[in-house]
Amino acid sequence: MPRIPSVRGRLKDTPVDRPKRVLLAAPRGYCAGVDRAVIAVEKALEHYGSPVYVRKEIVHNKHVVAELEQQGAVFVDEVDAVPQGAHVVFSAHGVSPAVVNAAADRGLHAIDATCPLVTKVHREAVRFARDDFEILLIGHEGHEEVEGTAGEAPDHVTLVNSPDDVPNIEVRDPDKVVWLSQTTLSVDETMETVRRLRERFPNLQDPPSDDICYATQNRQVAIKKVASEAELVIVVGSANSSNSVRLVEVALENGAKAAYRVDFSTEIRQEWLDGVATIGVTSGASVPEGLVQEVLIELADAGYRDVSEVKTAEEDLMFSLPKELRRDLAGNRDARALGGRSRAAV
Predict the structure, then answer these.
(1) Which residues pair with 261 in a beta bridge?
(2) How would DSSP label each residue in 279-299?
(3) What phi and psi, each to the nearest 5 degrees, are found at residue 291?
(4) CB-CB neighbours of 90 under 10 Å
(5) Is 137:165 a contact under the CB 8 Å cutoff?
(6) Sign of dihedral through CA atoms 115, 73, 65, 10?
(7) Which of the residues are catalytic?
(8) Which one, of 42, 84, 88, lies nearest residue 65 by Cα?
(9) Mean pLDDT over residues 304-313, rounded?
(10) Contact 295, 12 (CB under 8 A)
(11) What is the pLDDT of residue 210?
(12) Exposure check for the chain: N or C terminus, fewer CB within 10 A?
């Protein structure tokens, strides 16, 4: 679906008993893995022409997917829908070895845009399975990232959806158990799940490093600070974006009286603003900054013109593009070989 443009004057400036303001969380929006994946599709289209196929959504954002479709990307659910010999991009969430093999069997030219932080978890799963550990994978059933990680070692992985699952977990050897996690979960809930798992399995091992990605953690820390002062929090992000949904939950758990997720500014409802002086705004890690700016424009129409950025961390990480895309069509190293794009200022 195309971007829905903001409608000026749709929201009304109704009086409240205190000055109206917006607290804009930072960091927010695109992370390095998302940026890399989106640029990978754009550059694949430049290199190979349309169509370039993408298995699943490259990232979980309606606007990003719609824009790439307009440029010539074709999104499919599985590689068997891709014509033999075509180019296919694997999404930022990663795929299992079975998907890689299925693409090879069809003679597809695969470009792996998996976030390197997800790839790290895949490698951990392979290593622990090789050492015959049982892997307790904390994550949401059906999420592409979980399916990809579990597919690396299906005979060694048990999925743990939430802390409430812990009493029902059974393992072969309680002395050879390790936990891994989906990268986009709530940090607090994941740690609570780990705490309960360790109560049942005292010798539970930790992964070599934290699996929840830096961007997910940073956005949760920022919204915690904002939520403590905001009566309403608006999170820009799509419903299938795990990290966006978690931001709504984190806001409510940390002081916000109300919190809502929107794909576009036009989804903000007038009644959400009734009696509200302070609004917090943030966005999930797969959201372009332009969508946040549209929210700020609509809120300004409703009298929320005082915007203060609440910054809790600096992010300057970039990832190399997939190897097939690091050079331009003339064979020279491309200026965007590390990904990265400018971000709009407040």
Answers:
(1) 235
(2) EEEEE-TT--HHHHHHHHHHH
(3) -70, -35
(4) 25
(5) no
(6) positive
(7) 145
(8) 42
(9) 98
(10) no
(11) 87
(12) N
